[in-house]
Design a protein that fits this description.
This protein is an alpha/beta fold. 22% of the residues lie in helices and 30% in strands. The strands form four sheets. Strands 3, 6, 7, 8, 9, 16 and 17 form a seven-stranded mixed sheet that branches. It has a six-stranded parallel sheet with strand order 12-11-10-13-14-15, with helices on both faces.
């Protein structure tokens, strides 16, 4: 019997649509997943939606179950939570996370799904891919006990990093953003908040996630001598200017990049991708992460939702997409 589902496709830059898709019969080592929720990763997905992925990064930006090619038509996304309806006995009926585009149901290898722990609500579990990015970042540049740490950029990734940093003993964390309403998010996460103009300096570690040149420069200016700035932003095809005069050399400042496509070198020999994802899902047992989900819409409205997110008409951290009346 041929099953059908509905999938979101970017037909052309700035134009999305819902298309029917045929699903294959699951093989021996595959699962059929019925979607319950998916999350819109605002920064990356609006970049894709507007056609801003540079040609040199088409391969690096490819999602695990992407169909089509950049700039369009393409089926893209990677924050999906659903229930296994068919597959190996130990997975049937389980709630799972998968790095799959927005689609009402799909068939993937059983190894591509991770069981969501019982203590993690299914809606919150869409954050797993973002928390995985945050875990990798803090493997790249872990703070020391007593460090003064700033996160510049209170978007989805920046707030996920902030939530994890708030758990480190003796670490004082400040979230910096141009939007003063992010103070409420910072308070919910248990950290300090400042605008770029009022941010504390002398920081041992700055994590930059604002995806702006101004944010990157401000983060560098906040560092103490021999401090480290960890760059998490993705700029797409935009050029970034940075002043490396002043205290950059005399203060022996460091800039490091972090990207979730590979396990951080510090843990690459001892942790697999599956280990990292399982850790991210376990960390989501903390209800503080609920503050990162700032809106929800039914799947049928996703083309309009992405257009509004890209245009700035719909402010959001993670926007939740619901299926089947969830």
């Amino acid at each position: 019997m041929t099953r059908s589902a509905l999938a979101f496709w970017l037909r052309a830059p700035g134009v999305g649509e819902i298309r029917p898709v045929a699903l294959p019969e699951p093989g021996t080592d595959e699962v059929l997943v019925r979607s319950r929720y998916s999350g819109v990763s605002r920064g990356t997905e609006t970049l894709v939606f507007t056609g801003g992925v540079p040609a040199s990064q088409y391969a690096a930006m490819r999602a695990p179950f992407q169909e089509g090619d950049f700039p369009a038509p393409v089926k893209y996304g990677y924050l999906s939570v659903g229930e296994v309806e068919q597959g190996p006995a130990h997975l049937r009926g389980r709630t799972v996370f998968c790095l799959h585009p927005h689609q009402s149901a799909y068939v993937v290898p059983a190894a591509a799904v991770t069981v969501v722990p019982a203590e993690v609500p299914a809606a919150r579990a869409v954050l797993a891919g973002t928390v995985e990015t945050a875990v990798n970042a803090l493997w790249d540049a872990p703070p020391l006990v007593g460090d003064r740490v700033t996160v510049v950029g209170g978007g989805m990734v920046g707030c996920a990093v902030t939530a994890l940093l708030a758990r480190f003993p003796g670490v004082r964390v400040e979230l910096v953003d141009t939007d003063p309403t992010r103070a409420e998010v910072a308070a919910a996460l248990g950290v300090d908040f400042a605008t770029p103009e009022t941010a504390a300096d002398g920081r041992d570690l700055v994590v930059h996630a604002s995806a702006t040149a101004a944010g990157l420069q401000r983060g560098l200016d906040l560092l103490a001598p021999e401090g480290t700035l960890l760059e998490l932003s993705w700029y797409g095809d935009r050029q970034v200017q940075l002043s490396l005069g002043g205290a950059f050399h005399s203060g022996r400042l460091n800039i490091r990049s972090s990207q979730v496509g590979m396990v951080a070198p510090a843990r690459r020999a001892s942790r697999s991708y599956a280990d990292r994802m399982a850790l991210a899902l376990n960390l989501l047992a903390d209800p503080a992460f609920d503050t990162l989900i700032t809106g929800r819409s039914p799947f049928a409205e996703l083309p309009d939702v992405l257009a509004r997110l890209s245009g700035g008409d719909l402010p959001a951290l993670c926007h939740l997409i619901t299926y089947d009346g969830e």
